[in-house]
Automatic annotation (TrEMBL):
This is Vitamin B12-dependent ribonucleotide reductase. Residues 735-839 form the TSCPD domain. GO terms for molecular function: cobalamin binding; cobalt ion binding; nucleotide binding; ribonucleoside-diphosphate reductase activity, thioredoxin disulfide as acceptor. Catalyzes the reduction of ribonucleotides to deoxyribonucleotides. May function to provide a pool of deoxyribonucleotide precursors for DNA repair during oxygen limitation and/or for immediate growth after restoration of oxygen. The keyword Nucleotide-binding applies.
Length: 984
């Protein structure tokens, strides 16, 4: 096995100095963990269909600004050790330390740092970026690094297979080991002889399609990473292979089979018991087309299919007819995609070693056969400044640190095969990328499908890759260039100049993209000059991956290069349940566009109800494009996706994981045009998905059978969607004359008074607190606190949210009280909100928070139950309540019979505030719950979009938790548990 310079002993680098690491993000003398407020959470995950608890770990530690979703997914996916054992990780600190300390130790051992102080700074900076969700490594890093398992850090692999039975059987074995390790693989089958060629024995060859059946069955059996997701794979065939038509038709024919079996009564839903009879469903298929073929399509000429052994033309076909068949198959079942061979290899930095023939399953990693790539993605929204401009210098500092860490990982990484290990150590391919582009552009007031949006994306991508290669050249001067650089030096430098020239062609439109472009231009100049002197440490630097699971880890609104999926999402709540949330970048974007607070409230309210901005009150039509999404009323046009990829592709070492979404009404001609324009615009690969083109979709009736046609599917949605989303973000002021209650109290010897005022329906609307002498600091603080809470209540923040936040706060004065219902209190705040809960919340709401009256505690001692025999609510509620219209009162109002506040039903909505997004820099999102907190059914953005629009979202069900997934690049990701159908 060849050893790289970096894997040699440090003494081999005489005269070379290590890196000086400047402190940018962390604070000198303070550990990054000490700058964060931490809290304990219970992570319980259930299958919403069966109610079965599939995971439970209590008391895990996370920063208070991490969402419940992020902490749930990280705990279930990435914590190592058996649950319930001392070896189990119990918090984010352990997870991050396990990874970062391994990277730092390897960096020291291999001579990356100038001094021990630089190594410590590297550790602190990397830790700070990770815990503050500025970036994340790909999933295999979190699975494996620092554990007793093999230290596999790569998510993407490319295999090779030759025209021999030994090689074909070895392909099956190697794929299996890669899937088992939690990753995906791709390969090109074009070396295998076609079914139209002869074997040396005189018989006819089976052809590559026949061998695909065995590999597909293997992939369908093996779950990646033990249980995290199904295997992901890519199968590529060259367009001049004699079996190309059979390859194109494989999935197409299987879709017809699904229809026939479904109509015969078999369960052909995704995950159905009969779907396993369908073949070729575990791989993405792509045709590798050449410029020669595409020109023949344009000109309408013949194209030759060539024998694999001799290269002679054994059959000619009409190029347009074959191109039409490819497009028809994609229209029918979304496969195959296209990969543009000449474009890919024109940007290849290692042509002297071999051509690029294949990609990983999601099409972003394209490199040599038997190679791998480890990925990391930055959260772009973290680099948006308060003035809504992009912080390019800070972004560049993060990139250079992350790319350094990624290169260090190759020094200690393990690989599934010796051939992959050799190639990766010799060429050191990396795949830095980003997520949250869609949210960033929206927050900046830029349309995804606009010249301004594309210019911003292009300059950011250029800066990222330019900074990565500049740092790669610096590393080459310290620990040496990659082993294969010498033979490919001229080609590598040529590609760097191509990137530089592409950067020069970018035309900026705003101050933000102009500043980013200026810095990118400086970086590319350094790349070219340093590369001439030092060479480069890495053959590849950047890709744009789907960022499915790690996107949730970073609390990203959008994945990879994708636009926002929908303007209304779901959010998990502490203790279970979920709520709907209007994308919190929308208010920021509207403010950037110059709208005042009143108009912003009205527009957000409209979006909450309708799921789109069309006809939103006060919103200018020229601003609609800023809020376009992947799905829904204002869905982006297909060419909008293509143009965004074309804007960023010249600045990527690899390619882009992205699917071009088309409506169900799209035609074959439109797909042909997308494939043709993608080639002309210089993309390396294109995949399309036409809505509802798959038969085996998750919409099903009570028996689990798929609907037979689109009309039935629409009917299924209408039957399922019965809830009415109610949203009222406007202030509900109290009447001039209102009910009020005055409570005197003593806590730990400190006396005070509380006046609470209610609306006509009995719902709490204001509080006044009197403590200390008038004019004192304490009195002023309590007045300000009272006003803040009162305004929140009037804008719809539920009282129980305040109660959950402020009870159990511990500070002086504390101790005994003079209230028989609250005998002991940990602080004045603890007492006040316990008293308010007893006065204004129903028994059910209070019992969820563990708050009971003296009468209820006595009943528990006598009967073992807190619950009242007939009425709900405390004794004080029954005495003081005023009638307000009986059971027909509005949600959250008082019930005439009991006087208690009526709990919202499952079909009603109420305002909610997120408990996990309360960090110092977090903006308060405007949210609406669609269910009571104890509702059993989980929600996803895909389901919410169905509910609001009344149309089906064409996504599979999650194999782990049963909820509906949503697109992420060319894969799908589950918002409930973080599982993906892809490889990153």
């Amino acid at each position: 096995m060849t050893e790289t310079a970096a894997s040699s002993a440090p003494t081999a680098r005489k005269g070379r100095k290590g890196l000086k690491i400047n402190r940018v993000f962390s604070t000198a003398g303070v550990h990054p963990y000490d700058e964060i407020t931490w809290e304990r959470r219970d992570v319980v995950q259930q299958n919403w269909k069966t109610g079965e608890t599939v995971f439970e770990q209590r008391g895990v530690e996370f920063p208070d600004f991490w969402s419940v979703n992020a902490s749930t997914i990280v705990t279930t996916k990435y914590f190592r050790g058996a649950v319930g054992t001392p070896e189990r990780e119990t918090g984010l600190k352990q997870l991050v330390d396990r990874v970062v300390k391994t990277y730092t130790k390897a960096g020291i051992e291999h001579g990356y740092f100038a001094t021990p102080a630089d190594a410590e700074t590297f550790e602190h900076e990397l830790t700070w970026l990770l815990v503050n969700q500025y970036f994340s490594f790909n999933s295999p890093v979190w699975f494996n690094v620092g554990t007793k398992s093999p230290q596999q850090v790569s998510a993407c692999f490319i295999l090779s297979v030759d025209d021999s039975m030994d090689s074909i059987l070895n392909w099956y074995k190697e794929e299996g080991f890669i899937f088992k390790g939690g990753s995906g693989a791709g390969l090109n089958l074009s070396r295998i002889r076609s079914s139209k060629e002869l074997l040396s024995s005189g018989g006819t060859a089976s052809g590559p399609v026949s061998f695909m059946r065995g590999a597909d069955a293997s992939a369908g059996t093996i779950k990646s990473g033990g249980a995290t997701r199904r295997a992901a794979k890519m199968v590529v065939l060259d367009v001049d292979h004699p079996d190309i038509e059979e390859f194109v038709e494989t999935k197409w024919r299987e879709e017809d089979k699904i229809r026939a079996l479904r109509d015969a009564g078999f369960d052909m839903d995704l995950g159905g018991k009969d779907i396993t009879s369908v073949q070729y469903q575990n791989a993405n298929n792509s045709v590798r087309v050449t410029d020669e073929f595409m020109r023949a399509v344009e000109e309408g000429t013949e194209f030759g299919l060539r024998a694999r052994k001799t290269g002679e033309v054994i059959e000619t076909v009409d190029a347009r007819a074959l191109f039409r068949k490819i497009s028809e198959a994609a229209w029918a079942c979304a496969d195959p995609g296209l990969q543009y061979d000449d474009t890919i290899n024109d940007w290849h930095t290692n042509p002297e070693t071999g051509r690029i023939t294949a990609s990983n399953p999601c099409s972003e990693y394209m490199s040599l056969d038997n190679s791998s790539c480890n990925l990391a993605s930055l959260n772009l929204l973290k680099f948006l400044k308060d003035d809504d401009t992009f912080d390019a210098p800070l972004f560049a500092k993060a990139v250079e640190l992350i790319i350094t860490a990624m290169d260090i990982s190759i020094c200690f990484a393990d690989f599934p095969t010796e051939a992959i290990g050799d190639t990766t150590r010799d060429y050191r391919q990396l795949g830095i990328g980003y997520a949250n582009l869609g949210a960033l552009l929206m927050a900046m007031g830029l349309g995804y499908d606009s010249d301004g949006g594309r210019a911003m994306a292009a300059t950011i991508t250029s800066l990222m890759t330019g900074t990565s290669y500049r740092r790669s050249a610096e590393l080459a001067g310290i620990v040496g260039p990659y082993n294969g650089y010498a033979r490919n030096a001229e080609a590598h430098q040529r590609v760097m100049r191509k990137h530089q020239a592409a950067n020069d062609l970018v035309r900026t439109l705003h101050i933000a993209d102009a500043q980013t472009h200026k810095l990118a231009t400086e970086e590319w100049a350094k790349v070219v000059e340093l590369g001439k002197t030092n060479g480069f440490r890495n053959a590849q630097a950047s890709v744009l991956a789907p960022t499915g699971t790690i996107g949730f880890m970073m609390d990203c609104d959008t994945t990879g290069i994708e636009p926002d999926f929908s303007l209304v999402k779901f959010k998990k709540l502490v203790g279970g349940g979920s709520m709907q949330i209007v994308n919190q970048t929308i208010p920021r974007a509207l403010k950037k566009l110059g709208y005042d607070e009143e108009k912003i409230e009205a527009i957000v309210a409209y979006i909450a109800e309708h799921g789109h901005v069309v006809d939103a009150p006060g919103l200018k039509t020229e601003h609609y494009e800023i809020f376009d999404t992947a799905m829904g009323e204002r869905a982006l046009k297909p060419m909008g996706h293509v143009k965004m990829m074309a804007a960023t592709q010249p600045f990527l070492s690899g390619a882009i994981s992205k699917t071009v979404n088309l409506p169900e009404s799209a035609t074959v001609e439109e797909i042909e045009d997308i494939y043709l324009q993608s080639w002309k615009l210089g993309l390396k690969a294109t995949a399309i998905y036409r809505d509802n083109c798959k038969v085996g979709q998750p919409l099903s009736d009570g028996g689990g059978k798929a609907k037979k046609d689109a009309a039935d599917a629409a009917s299924s949605v209408e039957t399922k969607v019965v809830e009415k989303v109610v949203y009222a973000p406007t202030r509900k002021r109290l009447p001039k004359s209102r009910q009020a209650r005055t409570t005197s109290f003593t806590v730990g010897g400190a006396e005070g008074y509380m006046i609470s005022g209610a609306h006509d329906d009995g719902q709490l609307g204001e509080i006044f607190l009197k403590l200390g002498k008038q004019g004192s600091t304490l009195a002023g603080v309590m007045d300000a606190f009272s006003i803040a809470v009162s305004i929140g209540l009037q804008y719809g923040v539920p009282l129980e949210t305040y109660v959950s936040k402020f009870t159990n706060l511990r500070f002086e004065p504390a101790g005994l009280t003079d209230d028989p219902d609250v005998r002991m209190s940990q602080s004045i705040m603890d007492y006040i909100f316990r008293r308010l809960a007893l006065d204004y919340l129903t028994f059910e709401e209070r019992s969820m928070l563990g708050i009971y009256s003296a009468e209820e505690r006595q009943r528990h001692l006598e009967t073992g139950s807190y619950e009242p025999l007939e009425e709900t609510g405390s004794a004080s509620e029954l005495i003081d309540a005023a009638p307000a219209g009986g059971r027909d009162a509005a949600p959250g109002g008082r019930d005439a019979a009991s006087g208690g506040r009526v709990a919202p039903s499952a079909s009603e909505a109420r305002i909610e505030t997120p408990e996990a997004d309360s960090g110092p820099d977090a903006e308060e999102p405007i949210v609406i719950t669609d269910k009571a907190p104890d509702a059993p059914q989980a929600r996803t953005s895909a389901e919410l979009l169905e509910q609001i629009t009344g149309h089906a979202v064409d996504s599979p069900l999650c194999m782990t938790c049963g909820t509906k997934m949503r697109p992420a690049g060319s894969c799908y990701v589950c918002e409930g548990c973080g599982s993906t159908s892809g490889c990153s």
